[in-house]
Amino acid sequence: MSTADIINSQQDQILSNWMQSLKEKMPVISQYDKSAIENSVPNLLKAIVVNLKSDNQEEVNHNSQEHGQQRASFRNYSLRHIIREYNLLKITILHLLDEHELTPPKERDAIMLVIDQAIEQAAEIFYIVKQGVQVDARKVAEKKANDLELEDDNREEFIQSISHDLNSPLNNIKGCINLLEKDLDVGEVSQILRILKTSANQAEMLIKDFLDVGKIGTNEKVPVYISKFNILEELRNEINVYEVSQKVEIELQSEVDDLYVEIDLELFRRAFNNLMNNALKHGETESKITISCLLEENKLIISVQNYGKVIPDKVLQNIFNRYYQVDGTRKGWGIGLAFVKEVVKAHEGDVQVTSNKDQGTIFKLIFPQD
């Protein structure tokens, strides 16, 4: 029996094994039904069979954009999840083939080719939909400036600052998507996808913070959707992206290898990325950033430490206030840290900051874990 025949006859078994693997290694997927999870994967398996039987195995007749578009509607779903689910499918197929016979290298390469192309297509459409590449940054800023009733002399500077901050990562995203349309090897695609994730996260975080921070000062809280996840795995993934994109040394300190917590994953990511961007912006470039994570007295404590200019006490007292700026600077509009405060407040937690010459600047996120 040929490799194509095995895959064709064992399609249901492949999907079943793949589904089981997803539920074990990607808990986020368990909240969706079978048909939603499978999506276009059955058609992908058919495309693999067709490709294996084709004389020209470089021509792949399959489109995974629908899969990426559907995944963009999944809550707490990221590019990392898309890549991982396709890789798990690849492993599932190869394990099944190994049980039957030795698959020739040429046919293994053909299977890899189809799945790698599926990853590229799904990732591209995922970011176009999920991260809002078509956002008109200036219109968003103009609307917010009107809502804030900024004085005329500050209004234009406010709009230009926000527009620039939004357009920079979005332009990076568009450039990376253009690169994905070219002939690249798997290693190059992986690097581009890492840059995509960083840029898209920055854009999404700024847009959401920008809109959500307007709620500060009202009785309305940021909505919280609790989920259980491995906080250390999440931190490792985020740190890895920063190390690749920013070329910075980051140390993660924890007394355990795995730590499952219950907080809002998306809000945590946004708060953590705000603190990381703050550390990168104000810390010394030659010094490392230290992240610590611990569970103490039913409280999850995440610390971000960097060394740089000591923050004066007067600034520390106001640093989490909405639109607060240090006198004489125009490095930002006080959105990020104000939103961090809203995140922990919504969790009924706390955020603390200290800054001195010996220990540097340390921000602490404290989430209750009753």
From TrEMBL:
Reaction equations catalysed: ATP + protein L-histidine = ADP + protein N-phospho-L-histidine
Enzyme Commission (EC) number: 2.7.13.3
Entry keyword Phosphoprotein: yes
UniProt keyword Phosphoprotein present: yes
Residue stretches making up the Histidine kinase domain: 161-370
Keywords from the named record: Phosphoprotein
Pfam families recorded: HATPase_c (PF02518), HisKA (PF00512)
Domain of life from the UniProt record: Bacteria
SUPFAM superfamilies: ATPase domain of HSP90 chaperone/DNA topoisomerase II/histidine kinase, Homodimeric domain of signal transducing histidine kinase
Protein name listed in UniProt: histidine kinase
Source organism: Marivirga lumbricoides
